[in-house]
Amino acid sequence: MQSRRLRHLVVLALAALLTVAATGCESAVARQAAPATSLAPGEPAPRGGTLRVGVLGDLQPKTLLQIGTSPANGQLLANVFDTLVTYDRDDLTPQPALATSWELAPDGRSLTLQLRRDVHFHDGRPFVSADVESSIRAYLDDSWNPQFKRTAAAVTGFDTSDPHTAVLRFEHPLSNVFDLLSVAPIIDGNTLPQLQAGTEFNGTGPFRFSGWRPKSQVQLVRNDAYWGGPPPLDGVDLVVVSDEQSAYSRLRTGQLDVATSLSYHDQELATSRYGFTDVTFTGAEGATYVGVNLTNPALSDVRVRKAIALAIDRDRIITDVYRGSGYVSNLPWPQSSPAFEPRGTSTYGRDLDRARKLLAEHGPVPELTIDYSTSGTYGIVAEIVQSNLADIGLDVKLVPNDYTQQTGKLIAGSFDGLWVLEHGFAQFTPSTLAVSAYPFNAAKNSSNYSNQRYSDAATAAWVAPTPTSATATAAYRELNDRYLADLFLIEIGVTIPKIAAAPSVGAITWDKISRLHLAKTYLTSNRND
């Protein structure tokens, strides 16, 4: 194991040296901040060509409504389907999409949505209010098991008597209702079985589903009848890549136009040395963490969990693994969140003496396990954590899983001891994290953690009149108290996703869950590969 750690350190050092050598005196940050291909004011976007986007993982129709289970799922949903509202990346103010306007009742118990009248599904059927109901009700189907199921279940009534107006009635006020409406795709209830089988994807979005070759690629073609105007691109190929190195090689050799799954080291090399565009997904921050199964007797005592929190070298992980694209944190929230508190950056720094003292008070701890996904940077993070825990006398065995296995264990709460993963949802309304995300859901979570104070705070944040009200703010403080005191998850830091794009790609945009939105994207070199 020591040789593997040394090998990773050599790779990290070599990547850093290559970056310095390639950029010379020019700042790497300046190169990465260079704008993507852009047009002069009033200049029309070039038309034509098929954009090739590398995705790490094949399409998984049965998990289509689960966020983060498959990159191919996310890219298909964002471009074949529309949502009722969207969010600007910088804040949580909903913007019109399929809903043109809305009115929330004074008591917060109902929402009236006015719908666009010029929208059709790809099969030609008009979009109407009944589609809003069927799309939200799809989240209640146990076969999907989506994160937003609990919020969707709180929508207890629908009035769709007017085809262009949808009235949603709530069990209680929903501070995060627009989070749901910004991610829930408007799907065709008439073809729901085909959607689950992966044979038909009948959306209203800028691209139509054209074909799927499993483990190879998903093909999308332009929707010429799109209500927002036909996209410049002829189509999009979602190219399935086996691993990060394959994505890097294919990008470098011109087989991909966009790589969504590079390691942060390869991302740095591609953009600072080889002229690819660095696209940093601000507003779509995630976080890397160590999860803890509280039913494991070796981890049930909070002193052990505090020792682990004090042993982790967060600075090294953020600097070396994520190349500084993020920042250390003991709380899940990005700095832009209304739940962010400065104490989250300093409560558990690396302090080996304190960690050893806590373990001495507790007594011997048997060997632990750390599950990690073989996809992405998780293996390197797991090895660093393993080394950190060895520094305080904890023996840890690494357990590799493929991405599907790791996700399955997360949803089922079946990890034996510790695990390493990234989570999202903290960039949304804070209540969404506590009632929706698999690791945090107060009703059922991956750590098998149960605490009435935590549950009460999650509910208080959820039913608050607004996400920034005094009631909500007080609930966020209690949630943070529980995260820092109980440590059922041990945060490492907030991370900011990146992608690399060829210089010929223009007008790239994204949403809060790192999905590309390609309705306005274009290629300056028209290819028809």
Q: What is the element layout, followed by pairings?
A:
Layout: H1 2-23, H2 28-32, E1 50-56, H3 71-80, E2 85-87, E3 94-96, E4 99-104, E5 110-115, H4 129-137, H5 149-153, E6 155-159, E7 165-170, H6 177-183, H7 192-197, E8 207-213, E9 217-222, E10 235-241, H8 244-252, E11 258-259, H9 264-272, E12 277-280, E13 286-292, H10 302-311, H11 314-321, E14 326-328, H12 352-362, E15 368-373, H13 378-390, E16 396-401, H14 403-412, E17 418-423, H15 430-436, H16 452-462, H17 470-486, E18 489-495, E19 498-501, E20 505-506, E21 509-510, E22 516-517, E23 522-523
Parallel strand pairs: 1-10, 1-11, 15-16, 15-17
Antiparallel strand pairs: 2-3, 4-5, 5-7, 6-7, 8-9, 9-10, 11-19, 12-19, 13-17, 13-18, 14-18, 20-23, 21-22
Helix pairs in contact: 1-9, 10-12, 15-16, 16-17
Overall description:
- The protein has a seven-stranded mixed beta sheet with strand order 8-9-10-1-11-19-12, with helices on both faces. A six-stranded mixed beta sheet has the order 14-18-13-17-15-16.
- α13 links the parallel β15 and β16 (396-401).
- Residues 1-36 have low confidence and may be disordered.
- With 529 residues, the protein is of the alpha+beta class.
- α15 (430-436) crosses α16 (452-462) and α16 (452-462) runs antiparallel to α17 (470-486).
- It is 32% helix and 21% strand.
Keyword list:
single chain, 529 residues, alpha+beta, seven-stranded mixed sheet, six-stranded mixed sheet, 21% strand
Structural class: alpha+beta
- How far do the termini sit from each other? 45 Å
Beta fraction: 15-25%
Measured on Cα atoms, how large is the radius of gyration? 23 Å
Query: Outline, from the CA principal axes?
Result: globular
Strand order of the largest sheet: 8-9-10-1-11-19-12
- Helix residue percentage: 25-40%
